[in-house]
Design a protein that fits this description.
The protein contains 13 helices and 9 strands. By secondary structure, it is α/β, with parallel strands linked by helices.
Length: 378
């Protein structure tokens, strides 16, 4: 079983014209070269079929176009999901192999990419016209029964670890588990080890109780790298105001995604994203909200092929029991009017038109994440 991005690589698509949003952000902001940090995302070229890659096992779909589009987007750094998420195979062994493969890949592409181990690395990437890669997990199942494995991954450069995916694991329940089990004793051990080794605790995909428990238990600020607001769209993948508020009170960060869960029963668009961002700011304050797109940068070249791949992927996720309400074959997992290499600039324009100051927009685009990361990674 593969994760969403890997699966869709094999049935990629192409250009969907943006719908009615200005093509560029205000020149003053673009000229400032603000930090843009995607708290959960990617830069892979989704149009690149596996059969056309020179080395499908080790290039992760990142080709010349992917790098060019990422640079044009202004992206400074992104949290890249690696390791076991769900499916077959030994979670620990798969994750170790992924950590090694990504370290080797980033080293090979050191003129373009930089492994992020500290906040200083993000600024170094920006200064050197490189893109910072933050290695992160979307499931802590690979911990097995040994919380000391956290140290192994920390030494490998992993800087973000999400406690659960949609289902249950040995730490507690994900967002799709009706029992809503909170943080287990083992989960508390893992959180303590994450704090000790200065790794960001990510509570995306978690059930409400484990989210509240972990936010309370952590001695360091925690993040929800990619989510929406349940008060705006009542879906399990979105977070309640109680969860959002506790994260902010602990000094943490909430990233709003560009995903189907921003609306109920229809395709969300950029206006829905703005609504979620503004609600999160009202609950958390402007110093604790940013973006975690849960998507890549290059836009799609052939929507017909893409939609067929999406249909297959939704069917497989449902069969595996890890699908969430809002995932449908007729709703794409991105915002049709906010995609491609201009999406961050378009978002900045939309926020400015809503009356948000340039300083607040810069916080949303990247400096809020950087502040929290700097406090934990230092």
């Amino acid at each position: 079983m593969t994760d969403r991005r890997t699966f869709l690589h094999s049935a990629a698509a192409a250009t969907l014209a943006s719908l009615g949003v200005p093509a560029t952000a205000a020149p003053s902001l673009r000229d400032k070269r603000p930090l843009i940090i995607d708290a959960l995302g990617g830069i892979d070229n989704i149009n690149l079929p596996v059969s056309r890659r020179e080395n499908a096992a080790t290039d992760f779909g990142i080709d010349a176009r992917a790098l060019a589009d990422a640079r044009a987007s202004g992206l400074t750094a992104f949290n890249m999901t690696i390791g076991y998420v769900f499916g077959d195979g030994d979670p620990y062994e798969k994750t170790l192999a992924d950590v090694q493969a990504w370290n080797a890949f980033i080293q090979r592409r050191s003129s373009d990419l930089l492994l992020v181990r500290s906040a200083a690395d993000i600024r170094q990437a920006q200064a050197g016209n490189r893109i910072g890669v933050i290695l992160g997990f979307q499931n802590a199942a690979m911990m097995g029964k040994d919380a000391r494995r956290v140290e192994v991954f920390a030494k490998g450069g992993v800087r973000v670890i999400q406690l659960t995916y949609n289902g249950p694991n040995q730490l507690g329940d994900g967002s799709m588990v009706p029992t809503n089990k909170g943080l287990t004793p083992f989960g508390r051990e893992v959180v303590a080890e994450l704090n000790r080794h200065r790794i960001l605790v990510d509570l995306s995909h978690s059930g409400e109780q484990i989210c509240l428990d972990a936010a309370a238990a952590s001695k360091s600020p925690i993040i929800i790298s990619h989510t929406g607001c349940r008060a705006v769209a009542d879906l399990p993948r979105n977070k309640t105001d109680k969860e959002l508020r506790l994260v902010a009170e602990k000094g943490g960060f909430v990233g709003i995604y560009f995903m189907p869960f921003l609306a109920v029963g229809r395709q969300p668009i950029a206006a829905d994203l703005i609504t979620h961002i503004e609600h999160a700011i009202n609950i958390c304050g402007e110093d604790h909200v940013g973006i975690g797109t849960d998507g890549t940068v290059p836009q799609i070249d052939d929507m017909k092929i893409y939609m067929k791949g999406l249909e297959d992927e939704v069917r497989q996720r449902r069969a595996a029991g890890i699908s969430a309400p809002g995932e449908r074959p007729d709703i794409v997992p991105f915002l049709p009017d906010l995609m491609g290499k201009d999406k961050f600039w378009k978002l900045a324009d939309l926020l400015a038109k809503r009356g948000h100051s340039s300083s607040r927009i810069e916080k949303i685009l990247g400096t809020n994440f950087l502040r929290v990361a700097d406090g934990v990674w230092s």
